[in-house]
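General statements about sequence and structure are easier to judge against a single worked case. No coordinates are needed to read the tokens, only the vocabulary itself. The sequence in question and its structure tokens are set out directly beneath this paragraph.
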Amino acid sequence: MKFADRSEAGRRLADKLLHLKNRQPLVLALPRGGVAVGFEIAGALDAPLDIVLVRKIGAPWQPELALGAVTDGASHETFIDRDLAASLDVSEVYLKEETARQLEEIERRRKSYCEGRPALQVAGRTAIVVDDGIARCATPRAGSGGPRRARRAAGYARGLERGCR
């Protein structure tokens, strides 16, 4: 599905999510592009908006090829496509070093984006995790499938698993 921009995407997606309006929704957006989409969804649902910091773990010779992703939190979570990493002969040493590097970037962004602001509580809410696109599904899988934070919600969108097979 194509959209003119992220705002239009958010408005059109919000129309499809209106049935969640009475389920105490909370929109968790993946920066950067997911925030613009999530902003529109949060507004339409009268829901609070927060972010989930996730970083791609790219292949050593092609950083845009997602081998996996890591997400923030008190105890981070990592998703690695083990089949892809093995088929590309990517070492565990590289995966560990790249995960550590991405966690440092997450911490830098947390200080920049969230300094002095506590994360919104998700317990008892319906979490809607939003990004602005999915190529290999690594980032949204780490961002929703998921962080302990989203799992504590009363419910969260499960369409990702169907869309990422």
